[in-house]
């Protein structure tokens, strides 16, 4: 039995994903049961060095648990080099830095994510093996918690130091599409996201971490059967370029830009998104030039400039609203900064002038109505564009600057995302917000 204690943190998750139909990050190939390559891609753990093969005792006897595994090599994932991963009992590997309870949401490598419970059978084990160039994680004879009678599943994921990812399946008793997702998501593929940290002004010393899923690879579930395998090959990303010249002249699937201040090449969509925005790299990358720029003079106070820009934009919105109301009723409210003398009603000349100006007033009213209709139409078009292009710059601009009162997807019990507890030694506290103590 495991006791969980939570630190005072706030986590809110918003998902924006794009299926890899155009193969921007990975290319995949599926091998059927009759293909000899399927057998070659399966790693026989029994023939490996016994000292390096580890059976995780806790994961092999618990449900919805996850444990950190340190790698002996740098594993490139979406262009980022990872040195530690989190293996979960639910048939997937979590790749994120921020450890939270909803590991099934994003940032995963999932050969077959489902509601597996190794504790229901003595033969169920979670095994991993690291030979210095590859990590093999095998879920051996695991059963579905809510469908034990369907039989056991045996499959594995192999992560190579060159970035290749192999999913191999030995025993799949039923079609993956028939596995229930009521109590646990059922996914096969990859996912990555970036984390943005916001400070909540109403609550001091509390930060809100928002996770944006910028890409997902979803594999076809109907092709996963006994003795099948899927091999995914990584494609070049902007992060691999270390100089400005090679960055802006790159001919890959991404629009790479070079940020002189960070000395980094990026498309703007990776795990360093917050650094990219905080250092005004999107403004700097508008100039596709490798000239040396004095970033200290351009951006002496980045944080202050961002705050001032936000305040100025709000001020401009208020001023525009005031101008609109003034045009609708020009004789009612004086504009700010000007002193207007309101003359008495007994002034017949002013009264006759107002009567003569009735026609222009109607014209202004019509123009105001047309302006409002144009604004509403533009708003609808922008909303439709953002909905169909969730990873565009405009979408991220509005989402990252949304007020804290806007609705967000919060994970609670019964939300469809099961809670995973991370296995930690007694007395140690993980930076996520979970502390596990064995009772």
From TrEMBL:
The chain crosses the membrane at residues 365-387. It is a single-pass type I membrane protein. Residues 237-282 form the PSI domain. Residues 316-336 have a biased composition (Low complexity). It is found in: Membrane. Belongs to the plexin family. This is Plexin domain containing 2b. The lineage of its organism: Eukaryota, Metazoa, Chordata, Craniata, Vertebrata.
